[in-house]
Amino acid sequence: MINFKENDSSRFIAAQIVGQWLDEGDFPDRLLSDADIKDRAFVMEMVYGIARWRRLLDGIISILSSRQPDAQLRPYLLVGLYQIFKMGSVATHAAVYETVEAAKKGGLDYAAGFLNAVLRRALREKDELVTRIAQADLGTRESHPDILVRRWTDHFGLLNTKKLCKNNNRRPQVVLHPDLNQISMDDFKLSLEKVDIKFAPHPFSPESFVELSHGVRVPDVPGFDDGKFSVQDPSTSEAVRLLDPQPGETILDACAAPGGKMALIAGRMQDKGLLVAMDLHEDRLQIVQKNVARLKLKSVKVIEGDAGNGRQDDIDGHTEFDRILIDVPCTNTGVIRRRPDARWRFSEDRLDRLIKTQWAILCSMSRFVKPGGLMVYSTCSMEPEEGALLIKHWLSKDNPFSKEEEVELFPPDSGTDGVYAVALRKDSE
User: Fold this and answer.
1) Is 255 assigned a catalytic role?
2) What pTM was computed for the model?
3) Which superfamily does 236-426 belong to?
């Protein structure tokens, strides 16, 4: 956790978070959530924007400077250039002056002149640079790694890859799902209108999800403290729809954190029965516990456990479940719009490691599905090796399951995050 002082400027804070992300690979969203930050919206815009446009901004730096900046200076250059090229509402003099002052506060007085010169040159040559960017290759102008551009072009075609990259660079809306067991959609909309919160039904699922206008703080939405809604993309509902949970059943959410799908499952169960919410990581389970408490869910039991541990004989005393959801860890290439840094973590080695984890979870959790029961495998990846190809290979190994329904969501077409989900029915004995 980075400790900031009350008088720290937003640009200084943004540069510090970006620097830690670049140096240590810490997730920007966790750094932001852990820090006590004033002017949070402005800082978030810079941090997420820089994570989104890092490759493009680095390309501009290479044009403007004959030498690469050192690791301490680079975050401030990125902060300044992001304001100049992507934040039209920021006055140009403030983008330069305040960023230079932030660098001085960060102990970079020796580089203040260089930083000032580069940012002022960027202002002078902005139109020319924008033209050069427009003529660059797809990976550079849309700020994606070449490995993903190549993979997606092979799988989706060039036109769809362009659409996907552009979609990934759009600022995502905050989407809410009201708990329809507590409040009707009409009443929820009315509660928003009463406090003048702008919203729109989500096109993918207008009867269940609403998009908030930018700038609304979720805790300010009526019903937050009463647990009348959860924050999640409509794509999450597809895996739960396939799972089709029923009141009174015993269900396992095997990789439950942060708890979005858990909330949907509990809603469909009418909070009746038993829903075991399991996750491997204690810190993420704390988020699940907070969601359970806020949503006032009585059917949910939160436990720590390893879904990929094939040696376990039971899960919280249960040897079988009516239904199991395995929302496996993945490369997150379907949620790059919401987690822009995920694009830079992708590699073939990481993909291979995750596939092994996904396979282990499939094999382990399949033993706990009762005969005739249902298992839903879900991932927010766009990579077929983590989705349809993995399931096809797993079913070919004589596992006693049959495929019932398969869903793939392509973000530019669905308006949601990218998702693969499949319902697998276990053979009856």
Assistant:
1) no
2) 0.93
3) Vaccinia Virus protein VP39 (3.40.50.150)
